[in-house]
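Minutes, project check-in
Item: structure for the 255-residue chain
Input as provided by the requester:
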Amino acid sequence: MIRKIIHIDEERCNGCGLCAGACQEGAIGIVDGKAKLLRDDYCDGLGNCLPVCPTNAISFIEREAAAFDEAAVETNMKAKVKNSIQTNIEANTQTSSTPEKNFTGCPGSMAKKIFRSPRKKEQTQTQPDIPAESELRQWPVQIKLVPVNAPYFNGAHLLIAADCTAYACANFHQEFIRNRITLIGCPKLDEGDYSEKLTEIIRQNDIKSVTIVRMEVPCCGGLARAAETALKNSGKFIPWQTKIISTDGHILNDM
């Protein structure tokens, strides 16, 4: 039958997973970092997913598609609940990092346990009487709050980091914040696009280098894209690099 159904533009999709969360029928999942319509008969055509998409990647089209099957949706949702309960039971008995099975939402929202090997006391308290010092050199740090012409930008080596990176990476201050001016943000939770403000910060100040630090989850790619866009739009040629942090705190690679 010809009917109204959603269409997802993969080029525009940033993998944030908000649409999957908004779809009450479970018709949308995140596959290889992109939103996908998993089954035509799960889509009721009402479009709860459209208004939550930050990149306008979802639209309505009319095409040949199976009719909406409410019974199939109900069966699928019950199976998901059952699998989720079973996964939580299994997670409590695992000895390694355990992602949730059959998860179709944003990878950045996927629940999993991270198991650490027991460490000797000297590994965690090498200098128990000397507290670690912060390497932060300025305030504020939120991209939305920092003044474009703050004096500390001149001659600065700039760090643009996703919020979660400092929590995941144990040595974040020493590895990334030291000798840099720090800006942080979350492209999934913050409204708007960072690229315009970052462009002005880079254009109007004497920035010496830019280091971008993001998490491995797809939705974190929005921060890297905003920073890269700002570098291009600023009209300047500045050394830059991107570092990716895994959800268990390892530095995966340089880009």
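Outcome recorded: The first strand starts at residue 2 and ends at 8.
No further action items on this chain.
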